[in-house]
Amino acid sequence: MAVLLSEGFAVRNLDLHYGTQQVLHQVSLQIPDRAVTAVIGPSGCGKSSLLRCLNRMNDLVPGARVAGEVRYRGEDLYGVGADPMAVRHRIGMIFQKPNPFPKSVYDNVAFGPRVNGYEGDLDEIVETALRRAALWDEVKDRLRKPAPALSGGQQQRLCIARALAVNPEVLLMDEPTSALDPIATGKIEELMTDLKRTVTIVLVTHSLRQAARVADRTAFMLDGRLVEMDRTERIFSAPSDRRTEEYITGRFG
């Protein structure tokens, strides 16, 4: 019997080409709301490309072509009249390398609301976003200091706070801890667990241990195709596909 998931993303028969190269092949999967979904697989398998399809970031890549269907809460994100900017407002993205703007901590977090014409209390927005990113106590006395002066882990949490400042419904995280030390990685993982109460998180990671620690569901990809997706516990203990088992146990990839 099929498992009923809370409505989030429904991806059906998704193909992606970069020029003449096809990088995603007929990918279909469901991603539930308010959970952490991990996407794992060897380098070059299409994990990040899939992630970028979920908020139309691939629109910015010359020669990129998407076919198939990507729905979020029933809305066709590639349908006629869908606004890519509005999609990215709802579905934020955190990249592999922290990328704070060359501005103060405060101005980094306030950037999105300012661009969107927010006329309310920016101080409140900044503090709330920094608290949600578990960074407020560390930077509350440094709000006017340059953001690039923060540590790598702090910079990544600042980027998360910057994304949260515009109240996204989803955070797409592309290897968000790959450049961080174990302590900073632990803080980001704790943050993901906390944020999923209010925000849907889709996590691309090369770390199987990280997926096992934080993800509610895990998808395994290979050669641009979805091999299988299930509850994380089942993927790691009793995968249904031999290729998944071989990857999980380190026999390839």
Automatic annotation (TrEMBL):
Coiled coil: none
Keywords, ordered alphabetically: ATP-binding, Nucleotide-binding, Transport
Keyword Transport: yes
Transmembrane parts of this sequence: none
GO terms of molecular function: ATP binding
Source species, domain of life: Bacteria
ABC transporter domain sequence ranges: 9-248
SMART domains linked to this entry: AAA
Protein name per Swiss-Prot or TrEMBL: Phosphate transport system ATP-binding protein
